[in-house]
């Protein structure tokens, strides 16, 4: 049991650094409106990781500013009911989000620690990792116990940025299979559609 726990913690640490490192068998699940959504099985989890990729006619700085607008980003993040900044320190941020779930499924909330990494090509990687004990749990919400992922912004020239949004999560509690299966497609698709719509207005 202890060995399993150590392996789980090690896996989480590796995934936190590499961005869902164990989700490698990516299969195209949807190609709609210029957005490609890929899914991958994750060893030891019944939930699939998701990855969305799209080209957006905006530069990296514009997209970074939109993502760092914590309250404003809730408007384009899929199923976001509320989002607020908890702490910002040395280039890291901690955010709190409430996630809408269809009745009768209990709503989720999540605390995410975000660290940013600039790349040599002028791009940006924003690493995400859940920190469920950062603040006390709220009544009426199920705290998401595990989440790792990343935003990857790659400049393509001529004011175009390739945006990749990738997440693997354990949502906690019980989630019906129909909801889990739809969420992993809808989350990247709708989030990237929303971000693109806002970014291309700037």
Key words describing this protein structure:
alpha+beta; signal; 202 residues; Alpha-D-Glucose-1,6-Bisphosphate, Chain A, domain 4; globular; single chain; 26% helix; START domain-containing protein
Describe this structure in words.
- Residues 24-202 form the START domain.
- Keywords: Signal.
- This is START domain-containing protein.
- One of its GO terms (molecular function) is lipid binding.
- By secondary structure, the chain is of the alpha+beta class.
- The chain has one domain: Alpha-D-Glucose-1,6-Bisphosphate, Chain A, domain 4, CATH 3.30.530.20.
- It has helices at residues 2-18, 60-68, 70-73, 177-199, and strands spanning 27-32, 35-40, 49-56, 80-89, 92-99, 108-118, 124-130, 142-143, 146-157, 160-170.
- Strands 1, 2, 3, 4, 5, 6, 7, 8, 9 and 10 form a ten-stranded mixed sheet that branches.
- A hairpin with a 2-residue loop joins β4 (80-89) and β5 (92-99).
- The longest helix has 23 residues, at 177-199.
